[in-house]
Amino acid sequence: MQDTPYTAMKPLFWLGTLFILGCGLYMLFWSRKDLQEFQRVTGPITRIAPQHPDFPHRAGPKDRYLYVAGFPKAFEVYLGGDTGDFLPDFQSIAHLRPGDTVTVYYEEAPSFVKSGGEEEKIIFFTQQIERQGQPHYIRGNFNVYFANFMIITGALLGCFLFFYQGK
């Protein structure tokens, strides 16, 4: 029996499928963390900027960078606003002013998400921002949707690979 290209590559297809499923499961469990499991910092806001001074190409009308005194990185906050955007669950960043004391719950970027030095100066995963115990920003569920997409895609690929079996 002659080997087909599929037969020769079959282990790599399965490995890729397992990788997609693994990433989807990781994102699903990561996005379901309780608020108290996130890192947090409390301090006065020094400024809220529409762009990061070191990365002007990241500037967008839907992004804000919040700086907290004594913390070396800016917190990236996605405001959304258009139809089809993955909006935050809640946001009222416009009511925050420099000098307001806030608590920011965040997560450092996972090691596989690092991107060109930006992670050294920006926190991409801002989960929640509170002032006096009241939330002013709550991250949306984009990660849950993307994780579900990856899990479903991996499952469909697995089914295809299982039933195809080199035919």
Walk me through what this model shows:
The protein has 2 helices and 8 strands; from the N terminus they run H-E-E-E-E-E-E-E-E-H. It is of the alpha+beta class and 167 residues long. It folds into 2 domains: 5-31 and 146-164, no CATH class; 35-138, Beta Barrel (OB fold (Dihydrolipoamide Acetyltransferase, E2P)), CATH 2.40.50. It has an 8-stranded mixed beta sheet, with no helix packed on it. A hairpin with a 2-residue loop joins strand 7 and strand 8 (134-138). The protein is elongated, with a radius of gyration of 21 Å. The relative contact order is 0.21.
SSE blueprint and pairings:
Elements: H1 5-31, E1 39-49, E2 63-68, E3 74-78, E4 90-91, E5 101-107, E6 122-123, E7 125-131, E8 134-138, H2 142-164
Parallel strand pairs: 3-6
Antiparallel strand pairs: 1-2, 1-5, 2-3, 4-8, 5-7, 7-8
Summarize the structure.
Helix content is 30%, strand content 27%. It contains 2 helices and 8 strands.
Average pLDDT rating: 81
Helix content: 25-40%
**Tally of discrete structural domains:** 2
CATH architecture of the largest domain: Beta Barrel
Q: What is the CATH class designation of the largest domain?
A: Mainly Beta
User: What is the gyration radius calculated from CA atoms?
Assistant: 21 Å
**Shape field:** elongated
**Order of strands across the main sheet:** 4-8-7-5-1-2-3-6
Which structural class matches the secondary elements? alpha+beta
Sheet-strand content, in percent, reads 25-35%
Query: Main sheet, how many strands, which sense, barrel?
Result: 8 strands, mixed
Instruction: Please mark out the parts with pLDDT under 50 across 5 or more consecutive residues, or reply none.
Output: none
The number of distinct β-strands equals 8
Distance between the termini: 12 Å
Element-level helix/strand string = HEEEEEEEEH
